[in-house]
Design brief:
This protein is of the alpha/beta class. Helix content is 44%, strand content 17%.
């Protein structure tokens, strides 16, 4: 199954994009095969709590179109709440999150970190430039310069926990750099990414303590 293989091998897209692709795949899959396929994707991307959200809803008997509507509405509202905070500000971001991207369309300027090893920050930069946004790409080594010359710092998240969140490697030093320069550090991620137990994750991801976060931006714009 070609679409399944592309999702399993995707190391560049943000979790919301992978979840969206998963839902589109499941929509075209026989109902009795959906749960098994989604669990296989979750096994490959264990840090992405949104995939657990899909599994739980399938197991509860929710129809796939209803899951898609719920997912898209939560993402849209989260982006809208970020947009209010980022309006007319210079923002530094890392990695790639489609929720974050859509929330930056009113930002004054976006400093985008390249985000090694996969360099998915380049995709974020191109997406913003294609929409006429003023954006600049920075090597990760120039993180301190980018943060110092911004108003706020924003990250997405693959999973949310009571103690903090999990995101791509580089997010922890970004949060620490924001703290050093006294910049607000926001995490934009819908509540479906919240989980009780920390999942396994490889060296491409890392945990960031919630004490480094100014505010978690969600669909209802309130703290966890």
């Amino acid at each position: 199954m070609r679409d399944l293989e592309s999702i399993l091998s995707d190391n560049r897209s943000g979790s919301s994009k992978i979840i969206k692709n998963t839902l589109e795949l499941l929509k075209d899959t026989d109902e009795d095969e959906r749960l098994e396929i989604c669990k296989k994707i979750l096994d490959t991307h264990p840090s992405m709590a949104g995939l657990r959200f899909i599994v739980d809803n399938i197991e509860s008997g929710m129809k796939i179109n209803k899951i898609i509507d719920k997912f898209e509405e939560m993402n849209r509202r989260t982006s809208e709440n970020l947009e209010k905070i980022a309006d007319n500000k210079i923002v530094t971001v890392i990695s790639r999150s489609h929720i974050v991207e859509r929330g930056l369309l009113k930002a004054k300027k976006i400093n985008v970190l390249e985000s090694r090893p996969e360099k998915e920050g380049i995709d974020t930069f191109r997406w913003l430039k294609d929409r006429g946004k003023k954006a600049e790409i920075y090597l990760d080594a120039f993180m301190s310069y980018a943060v110092k010359n911004s108003d706020i710092v924003v990250s997405g998240a693959d999973s949310l926990l009571e103690e903090g969140f999990i995101n791509k490697t580089g997010t922890l030093p970004l949060a620490l750099t924001a703290r050093h320069f006294n910049k607000d550090f926001y995490v934009a991620a819908p509540s479906y990414k919240f989980i009780d137990l920390c999942p396994e994750f490889d060296s491409n991801f890392e945990f960031v303590e919630r004490t480094l976060v100014t505010e978690f931006i969600q669909e209802k714009q309130k703290q966890l």
